[in-house]
Amino acid sequence: MNHEASSRVLIKLPRDRAWALLQDLTLAHHYVPGVLRCELHGEQRHGVGASRRVHQKMGRWMDETVTEWSEGSGFVIRLHRENKGPAAPFKKAQFRYRLEDAGHGQTALTTSLMFDMRWGVFGRLLYRRLMAGAFRGIIRTISLNMKAYYESRAGEPVNHADTQAVGEGQ
Q1: 60-74: string of b/e by CB count within 10 Å (b at 16+)?
Q2: β partners of residue 8
Q3: Is 63 a member of any domain?
Q4: What's the total number of domains in the chain?
Q5: Residue 160 counted as domain residue
Q6: Cα dihedral sign for 158, 163, 168, 170?
Q7: pLDDT tens digits for 124-157?
Q8: Are the CB atoms for 145 and 35 separated by under 8 Å?
Q9: Does a structural domain hold residue 135?
Q10: pTM score, whole prediction
């Protein structure tokens, strides 16, 4: 992939507890802005080949399929629509979630969107000039929302507008 937007936050949970939440592919609607719900495709809940449909606002949806799985530390999901690639502006796109011990009962969470743009040179220029900051901001928001959700353990979606305060000093 030619482009990557990443964010790293510290979560005040040991890695095994963070992993218990991360590996549940049905929880993304609690921390990804614009996601209303997630439904698994089939019975497989974990590992390479597990797949979900992410339902978004205004009737939009996207499929996400696990392509790499590292038990206890993370996974990579490919973004697509059924047998096709992802929606524009992406030619290819995948998302990586990675957990690492950070000491003192904390876990470092790194979220990364890795992608290629459509439209060749025009797409690369569009990304650099207009979209790079927005993509970094979205990935940062997802990381901060995950931190807030994991630390709250309340089972309620995170108020996306409040995440700036949560992430201060991270």
Answers
A1: eebbbbbeebeeebb
A2: 110
A3: yes
A4: 1
A5: no
A6: positive
A7: 666 666 667 778 899 999 999 999 999 986 555 5
A8: no
A9: yes
A10: 0.84
